[in-house]
Amino acid sequence: MSACVFCEIVAGNAPADRVYEDDEILAFLDIRPITRGHTLVIPKHHAPELDDLDAELGTRLFRVGHRLALAVRRSDLRADGANLAINDGKAAFQTVAHTHLHVVPRRHGDKLRFAGGLILRRSTEPEATAAAIRAGLERLEAER
Ligand code: 5GP
Ligand code: ZN
Q1: What is the pLDDT of residue 1?
Q2: pLDDT in tens, 21-58
Q3: Which of 1, 12, 50, 75 has the most CB within a 10 Å radius?
Q4: Is the pLDDT of residue 116 over 90?
Q5: Which domain, by its residues, includes 84?
Q6: Maximum CA pair distance of the chain?
Q7: How far is the CA of 108 from the centre of ligand 1 (A)?
Q8: Residue 1 lies in a domain
Q9: What is the pLDDT of residues 88-103, one digit of tens each?
């Protein structure tokens, strides 16, 4: 049993609503989302902070975050934008010591909802939400 909850998710020992996976990267819903569809993108390899992350893997991590930002716009979540962020290190309020990129879908005029989400961090219909993002990725793929 790993001490790292995200490594446990990668290994399939802890549950998560997965939205994307390849040989090196995994993306799944944040258990306490700020907005609906708030996703975490992680390297499968355990890298606690950016200092530990291979630069090429960091590039792949962002590439997936980039695609998710495009996918949520094309999904039934109907996002108009997204906040992408990495809290790197305890000084930056990183609470899970396995590098992760937050992708937080945003809507025009959602300022109050966003502020409430920062406080409540409540998950609604995670399975349907994950399915909507996966469908958004498929729509994005179909544009190629
Ligand atoms: P940080 O503050 O480290 O940037 O963010 C860590 C994020 O991980 C938080 O948004 C938190 O809700 C999320 N999180 C913590 N534990 C779990 C978990 O077991 N499963 C999932 N899906 N998300 C988690
Ligand atoms: Zn880990």
Answers
A1: 61
A2: 999 999 999 999 999 999 999 999 999 999 999 999 99
A3: 75
A4: yes
A5: 6-139
A6: 43
A7: 25
A8: no
A9: 999 999 999 999 999 9
Q: How far is CA 141 from CA 35, 82, 100, 119, in A?
A: 24, 19, 24, 35
Q: Is 100 a catalytic residue?
A: yes
Whether 52 is in a domain gets the answer: yes
SS3 14: coil
Q: Is residue 135 part of a domain?
A: yes
**Cβ 94 under 6 angstroms from ligand 1:** yes
Which residue in 45, 66, 98, 100 is the catalytic one? Answer: 100
Q: What is the CATH number of the domain that holds 34?
A: 3.30.428.10
Q: Is residue 144 part of a domain?
A: no
Q: Number of folded domains in the chain?
A: 1
